[in-house]
Design a protein that fits this description.
single chain; 230 residues; alpha/beta; 22% strand; binds guanosine-5'-diphosphate; binds magnesium ion; nucleotide-binding; membrane; G-protein beta-subunit binding
Length: 230
């Protein structure tokens, strides 16, 4: 345990979940972390989850940033993008605007990352899943066709499109499995297996208080400077 910190730095990944509000971002994260689903809506400000895995003797760390849909501070979103390694962009299949938001987010991520890596947009290798959620709703509510979703990812082998239901737990594990494969993370981190092997759960990142990580009640009054975590 004493050298956990040192060990972790090399195998540390940050997953960022983005999308309009109420599309099901927190529900998807909750499925991943504990397999549960809540019908009740709880607005997210910005939630952190940290999982530490011991896989064949090596320590791995996965930080999950579950963002709020409305981002009053564009700089915060930019920072989330800059520090993210893998991305899940969520929209709701019954909400056209949320799909447009995903298109904007995808563009912004590619822009921010390509200037960071000094690569062209096309070749920035960024593991990313675009996720059409609420696939359990009847087809008559559908506002986005499957081929429109597929089109967003067709030119990038590190990008995949999934239609899922956090509510019915349809395709969620598959989505994470493919995302982790694209990111070349150990498959043991995928949902089907990770619940058995993770050794630590849901603790706030360094420099961030529990109150801040669970800052729903505090809202954006949290005083921790996100920059400190870089
Ligand atoms: P977020 O704002 O993007 O984090 O969305 P939430 O995860 O808080 O979900 C918003 C609302 O949509 C909640 O009432 C959820 O219960 C509901 N919801 C989330 N996922 C699904 C889903 O797959 N199907 C249906 N029918 N409702 C969902
Ligand atoms: Mg949320």
């Amino acid at each position: 345990p004493e050298n956990i910190g040192k060990e972790l730095t090399k195998n540390s990944y940050r997953m960022v979940v983005l999308g309009a509000s109420r599309v099901g971002k927190s529900s998807i994260v909750s499925r991943f972390l504990n397999g549960r689903f809540e019908d009740q809506y709880t607005p997210t400000i910005e939630d952190f989850h940290r999982k530490v895995y011991n896989i064949r003797g090596d320590m791995y760390q996965l930080d999950i940033l579950d963002t709020s849909g409305n981002h009053p501070f564009p700089a915060m979103r930019r920072l989330s993008i800059l520090t993210g390694d893998v991305f899940i962009l969520v929209f709701s299949l019954d909400n056209r605007e949320s799909f447009d938001e995903v298109k904007r987010l995808q563009k912004q991520i590619l822009e921010v990352k390509s200037c960071l890596k000094n690569k062209t947009k096309e070749s920035a290798d960024l593991p990313m899943v675009i996720c059409g959620n609420k696939n359990d709703h009847s087809e008559i509510f559908r506002k986005v066709r499957s081929d429109e979703g597929e089109n967003l990812v067709s030119s990038d082998e590190n990008c995949a499109y999934f239609e899922v239901s956090a509510k019915k737990n349809t395709n969620v594990d598959e989505m994470f499995y493919v995302l982790f494969s694209m990111a070349k993370l150990p498959h043991e981190m995928s949902p089907a297996l990770h619940r058995k092997i993770s050794i630590q759960y849901d603790s706030p990142p360094m420099g961030m208080t529990i109150e801040c990580a669970r800052g729903r009640a505090l809202g954006l009054m949290c005083h921790t400077d996100p920059g400190q975590r870089l």
